[in-house]
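Assess this one:

_____
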Amino acid sequence: IESIDAASEQHRPLPSGAVIAVPGPLVATTVVRLLATMASGQVILPLDLALPDERRRAMIDQAGAVAIHDT
């Protein structure tokens, strides 16, 4: 799974319908990430940072997320 920033820097658009992991609490920056993801036609996978790393990794794998927003 790569970061959104890495894909953007390499000018590789993510396909419509791609699952994007969005970690973090619901604060202003997270809301902006959610809106940008939806506006781009991707699917949001919210990740609670309070969950163990193993559980978050399982969620990412099961959802088939192709990228993650950096925190």
In short: The chain has a mean pLDDT of 78.
